Amino acid sequence: MAPFFIFYLIMINVLMSFSETTSTNTLNVTCVDDATIVLTFGFYRGTCPEAESIIFAWVEKAVSKDPRMAASLLRLHFHDCFVNGCDASVLLDDRANFVGEKTAGPNVNSLRGFEVIDAIKADLETFCPETVSCADILALAARDSVSISGGPGWDVQMGRKDSLSASKSAANNNIPGPNSDLATLVSKFQAVGLSPNDVVTLSGAHTMGKARCSSFTSRLNGNANTNAPDINVEYLQALQQLCGSSDANTTLANLDLSTPATFDNQYYVNLLTGEGLLPSDQALISGDDEARRLVESFVDDPTIFFEEFKKSMVKMGSLGSSSGGNGEIRRNCRVINQFN
């Protein structure tokens, strides 16, 4: 990473802008709890120079033990950012008189990787107490999960603060569901400031990981018309056999049948052959010519996908919130400092 001038600016006026590029001259502005934070590259270079190497080492260790963990850590960052911005609210545990987001429909018995984040945070607190935010850990762990799995790396803008609150209702309403059609996906992405192109690009994260059979039952049950476009009868029959012979709430299927632990463009190849696992996956090429053209461009040239994915991740990582406080650097990612 090229050297950058490090600075941190908090302003009173609420501002928000999203970057379309990872240019070294670009700054993103995010809002956490009514305070505006300027995200910068190299944010911890002076205060915790070990931060990125510590996070990478823990992610590498976790993924080597469990390759699925790469997708899980990437998903944690997604689910965090779609609820009032990238503020680590998804990491907060329930406690007396406080309900977090972990029991929301899209998260309960589904999100993984909390223990990895705990280990990273504990190590960072040893080297640089109360310096690196849990929200920044999530953003860096997501990047490292992709690069360790064969995907691109990118410079992560940092300086996020951790929220003092969470919203189970926002998690239920804002996070796109696996049975969403394209119009619903676009609507939910646009609601947080992301574009239709970001929908197609960020869906490429499903090139890694697994999903429970219960999350794509409508895809299994909706294949009566086997002559419909983009229906792969053989693939659907294989899924029906997998999911019909066991508990749909525990049985897992690979999101990418061909290279489930590798970050590549195979996800988009699968869509064109009718092998997208989730209804929301296959929806990307059904009924929208622009979305399909973007999918086809990613199939033709994986470097285009990698470049667009990097841009969309930086853009998503800049999503901010304004929920009524000042934010903080949590000492324990599961609880705000007041109760720690």
Model description:
Mean pLDDT is 87; it is low at 1-26, 223-228 and 321-325. It contains 13 helices and five strands. It has 340 residues and is mostly helical. Helix 1 runs antiparallel to helix 3 (114-127) and helix 10 crosses helix 12 (289-300). The protein has helices at 51-65, 69-81, 114-127, 134-148, 168-174, 182-191, 196-202, 217-221, 233-244, 266-272, 279-282, 289-300, 302-317; strands at 10-11, 28-32, 35-39, 210-212, 252-254. It is globular and about 55 Å long. It starts with 9 loop residues before the first strand and ends in a 23-residue tail after the last helix. Helices cover 40% and strands 5% of the residues. A hairpin with a 2-residue loop joins strand 2 (28-32) and strand 3 (35-39). It has a three-stranded antiparallel sheet, with no helix packed on it. The chain has a two-stranded antiparallel ribbon with strand order 4-5.
What percent of residues are in strands?
Answer: 5-15%
Task: Sketch the major β-sheet.
Answer: 3 strands, antiparallel
Q: SSE order, as H and E?
A: EEEHHHHHHHEHHEHHHH
Q: Strand arrangement, largest sheet?
A: 1-3-2
Mean pLDDT level: 87
- Note the total helix count: 13
Organism: Lithospermum erythrorhizon (Purple gromwell)
Protein name: Peroxidase
GO molecular function: heme binding; lactoperoxidase activity; metal ion binding
GO biological process, one term: hydrogen peroxide catabolic process
